[in-house]
Design goal:
This protein is α/β, with parallel strands linked by helices and 263 residues long. It has helices at 2-5, 23-37, 51-56, 64-78, 112-121, 132-145, 167-188, 204-210, 218-228, 245-259, and strands at residues 11-17, 41-46, 84-86, 89-91, 105-108, 125-126, 160-163, 213-216. Strand 3 (84-86) and strand 4 form a beta hairpin. It starts with a helix and ends with a helix.
Length: 263
C-alpha cells in the first residue's frame, strides 16, 4: 500500500462510488486508513452514472440520489465516534478518525444537484471538469445553507501523462492501450455527463492529436513544469488498463530519476 510505504505522500481516491457500498463499512475502512496514515488519505465520493453497476450491486438506480444522501449522512455520523441510530438500531463506529471532525472527504459531480448536496452537508466539491459556473453555484449554495466549503476544480486542460524517452515509439507500442481506455471510458458517459477526460477520438492517431493523452520526454516534462512555475502539476498516468506492468514501471522510473530532481 502506498501510504504504508511512504511518510509524506498523500493519496486521493477518485472516486469512490458511495451508493454501491455499505456506508458503515466504508466509514470504518476510511477511518482506519486515516489513523494509520496520519490523515494522508483523501476520498472523493461519487454517485456514479452507469445503471448496469447499480443493477450488479442490486441497488435502485432511480433512487440513487436518496441512497447517496443517506450514505453520506451515515458516514459523517459514524466518524463522530458517537452512538447514532441506523436502520432502527443504535450503532457506534470506533476508533474515531485521526482527522477531525472527519477524514478528508469531498463530493464529486458536475450537476447542480451534486453542488447542492455538497453545500448542504458542508463538504468540499470536486467537479469532474472545469466548470466555473458550477463553482459559483456551489458557493452560492454554501452561503444559502450557512455552510463553509471549497471547490477543487480541474484546470481548463487535463492531460493523462505518460513519460518515455521516445514518444513516437511509445505511441506505436502503447497507443492502442491508451485508445482502448479512452474509448471505453467515453462509451460509459451519456450526453448529460461532463468530464475533462472525455475523448471523442476514433483511433490512436486521433487520440494523440486530441491531446488528452500525452507522452512526453523527461526534458519536455521539466520544460512544462518550469513554464508553469509554482502552479505546475502533473497528472501522471503510468499504467493504462491492459498495458504491460513493466511499461508502467519504466514511466515511473523516468519521472523519478529524470524529472523530479530537476523541478
Amino acid at each position: 500500500m502506498v501510504l504504508a510505504r511512504t511518510q509524506n505522500l498523500g493519496v486521493i481516491v477518485s472516486a469512490l462510488l458511495v451508493p454501491l457500498h455499505d456506508p458503515i463499512r466504508i466509514a470504518e475502512d476510511i477511518a482506519v486508513i486515516d489513523l494509520a496514515s496520519g490523515g494522508r488519505l483523501t476520498v472523493i465520493g461519487g454517485i456514479g452514472y452507469r445503471p448496469s453497476e447499480y443493477h450488479l450491486h442490486r441497488k435502485d438506480w432511480a433512487n440513487r440520489g436518496q441512497i447517496m444522501n443517506e450514505c453520506v449522512d451515515t458516514m459523517l455520523k459514524a466518524w463522530t465516534g458517537e452512538p447514532f441510530e441506523y436502520h432502527g438500531e443504535t450503532v457506534q463506529v470506533r476508533p474515531r478518525p485521526f482527522t477531525q471532525p472527519h477524514p478528508p472527504f469531498m463530493l464529486g459531480g458536475t450537476s447542480k444537484v451534486a453542488a447542492r448536496r455538497a453545500a448542504r452537508f458542508g463538504l468540499p466539491l470536486f467537479p469532474a471538469a472545469h466548470l466555473p459556473e458550477l463553482e459559483a453555484y456551489y458557493y452560492a449554495q454554501c452561503e444559502e445553507q450557512g455552510t463553509q466549503g471549497f471547490c477543487m476544480m480541474p484546470g481548463e486542460e487535463t492531460v493523462m501523462l505518460h513519460v518515455a524517452e521516445d514518444p513516437d515509439e511509445a505511441w506505436d507500442r502503447l497507443g492502442h492501450h491508451f485508445f482502448h481506455e479512452a474509448s471505453t471510458y467515453a462509451s460509459w458517459q451519456t450526453p448529460d455527463i461532463t468530464s475533462s477526460v472525455h475523448s471523442h477520438a476514433s483511433s490512436p492517431a486521433e487520440l494523440r492529436a486530441e491531446g488528452i493523452y500525452q507522452v512526453l520526454t523527461p526534458d519536455e516534462c521539466v520544460a512544462r513544469a518550469q513554464a508553469a512555475g509554482e502552479q505546475a502539476a502533473f497528472n501522471l498516468h503510468p499504467l493504462v488498463g491492459g498495458m504491460p506492468i513493466d511499461e508502467g514501471w519504466k514511466c515511473l522510473q523516468l519521472f523519478i530519476d529524470k524529472v523530479l530532481p530537476r523541478v
